[in-house]
Amino acid sequence: MTLTGLVGILMSANGPKWGDNGGGRRPPNPPDFDELWEEFKDWLGLSSSGKGGGNRRGGGNGGGQESAPMKMRPRTLASIVAGLVLVAWSASGIYIVDASQRGMVLRFGKYAETTQPGLQWRLPYPFASHEIVNVSEVRALTIGYRGDAKNKNNKELKESLMLTRDENIIDVQFAVQYRVKDAFAYQFKNRDPDAAVMQVAETAVREVVGKRTMDVVINEERTAVTEQVSLLMQEILDRYETGIEISKVTMQNAQPPEQVQAAFEDAVKAVQDKTRQENEGQAYYNDVVPKAEGQAAVLLEEARAYKERMIETATGDASRFSQILAEYAKAPGVTRQRLYLETLQQVYANTSKVMLDAKGQGNLLYLPLDQLMQGGGALRRDAGGGAASGGASALPQSQRPEEVNKSPATGSGVFRGELSRERESR
Fold this sequence. Notes:
Elements: H1 3-13, H2 33-44, H3 74-91, E1 94-97, E2 101-107, E3 110-115, E4 118-121, E5 128-134, E6 139-143, H4 157-160, E7 161-163, E8 169-180, H5 183-188, H6 193-210, H7 214-220, H8 222-240, E9 244-255, H9 261-330, H10 332-349, H11 369-381, H12 385-390, H13 401-406, H14 416-425
Helix pairs in contact: 1-2, 6-8, 9-10
């Protein structure tokens, strides 16, 4: 009996039609398990009942006499062992890839394919092998410190001390997060991609910091510095074909070295004071300059108005002079006399002095100065047309210059001496 036949018997022993030979009749009992086991042992050559499947139920082969025990055949044992080894060897090519991983299959040491998540099989060793790469894990590294950034004992000064553009030394600490975006490039195109990320990060940070001043890195452009470092790192890693993608770059700390920390704080305070004073000066400028500009605009407008007024006045005086000149040409004596009288009237209308003729008879004159002053104020109120048309008429009837000249009590009078000297000079 072969192994296939024996397996068939075992499988059909539990079937619903066991022993049905086509006639619909079934034996009273199914084959005994012990009998099947004896047949299996007989097939293996371990049976003690006889060679080649002897008398199993007391019949056949010498009238029921038991034969001598038989040894297992070496060829059969080797076949069994070889089959088991072959099964185990074939099963060694089965592997499982998680959802966050990718499988790299190598055949004879050369990359063959990338397998997706799930149950996978490859050729067993030594024909093929596989490597698992996690493409979803977020990896992290630090520059300038290890562990907690706030602990001074965790600093790595060889990594954190950098030189800025203004030749100052600065202590910068960064944290970088990255993940694998190309499993093949990450696994086979670089010997140690994680170490390459560390070196690229330090290089990028030193380049970006070296192009800026200390104040810019510490205070003004911290976000811009981290963005520039991330872009530069990604560019270098892509150039090296590392298969790595930078997720985030964070500046943990940026400050001057501890030896000059106090001096730097004083300098920062000075800069803050400078900024405050500049702001105060700007506020004062914003308050004063608009007012000054407004006053300047007012003065300019007043100057323009004064200019226009003076021009118009000069134009009017010139026109009046031309008219007087025309009248003077017609009657020089009369015009000259009239101009003289009008001029004296205007002059004496603005003064409180009274002139007397010293050559008179010396009689004591009574002059109502208060009324004369009031008359002078009336003359000033009648400036222009009133003074020219009848300025002397503003005085009382008894105190007009003409009547004073004609008064017999005054002798020569107030104005007569002056008018006489003017006529004699002419």
